[in-house]
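User: Need the bound-state model for pyridoxal-5'-phosphate:
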Amino acid sequence: MLKLDNHPSGRHFLHIPGPSPVPPRVLRAISYQTIDHRGPEFGEFGLKVLSGIQKIFQTKQPVIIYSASGTGAWEGALVNVLNPGDRVLFYETGQFANLWRALAKRIGLEPEVIGKAGQDTWRWGVDASLIEERLRKDSAHEIKAVCVVHNETSTGVTSNIAAVRKAIDAAKHPALLLVDSVSGLGSAEYRHDEWGADVTVSGSQKGLMLPPGIGFNALSARAIEVSKSIKTPKSYWAWDEILESNKTGFWPTTPSTNLMYGLHEAMDMMMSEGLDNIFARHKRLAEACRHAVTAWGLENQCLDTDCYSPVLTCIATPEGMDADALRKHALTKFNLSLGTGLGKIKGKAFRIGHLGDCNELNLMAALSGVEMSLGAMGFKPKASGVVAAQEFFK
Ligand code: PLP
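Assistant: Bound-state model below.
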């Protein structure tokens, strides 16, 4: 059996790009006694949580809260606004864009993938002009939605969502804009209303500093309107009954009461820090991490200087170094968890998460662990990444 309390002295350094560490305040809130989810106390609490989460998405429209991981929320978004056989445009940015597309295929949609020809799409942000170009050609309006990942967790690339909305509008195309901000929300700037997203999908275990288990769909008025005529069979994911129940702070099924206690607490913490301060903190941590990568003489997976992720940094290992051997060393020797390379970059890259409840010294610990592990792999860095990050923070 897994012995979670059997750890060496000190603490575990969880630096994967989500789940991210859960602050003690949030853990304590989660441990409050579970209450009657149909009682008056819960209704009042439910309304507070529903209005709080709108502030995090920066929306005035409803946000659906599912007891599900991000994948469930992906499915929820698709089945509510698309009919079986609908054509959907997916921009390939990495493993998560691909997984969402595979899910779409499995549930009977017709995904079409785009990305820049001749470019490794796993290293660049979304090129909105390609979306515009493709939509202009679709004069019959067969494409019903455009799906993009805001923060691609597999590569550390954050795309410009407002530019995608502009591209759809410039093409005068009615496709809905569906955005995955599972790992962006709460860490990277995100403005659901201003940027014109129709559905934004997210999850609890990244910038919101919660354990996994809650998934979100932030909606637009248009998405709600479209959903009313959609024929795709669904029950648990259907927005209509949830929206009706949510009016009084309840859910048609049993909500994740204790995770919602945690969500309430986390949102309180986030509002007292201020969203803009949170975004600036993440950018600063990411920049320090990039200074370390440059000093080591390693390559950032993200080549797009406008699209560096504030959430995580994905680092390519030098030829001949197994990234998973490096990660194994960091874990066994220093109790540091780093993210594995996913999909086609497995073994060739690792990821440092600097999201959620993370500050300068948390990051410095992770960078120290990486630097020592690189040394153990026989790698001779150009210079100390730890010192470079320290200089940046001074
Ligand atoms: N989308 C992105 C960008 C993610 O990072 C993840 C998970 O890491 C998912 C979707 C899938 O979410 P989950 O694993 O919670 O189902």
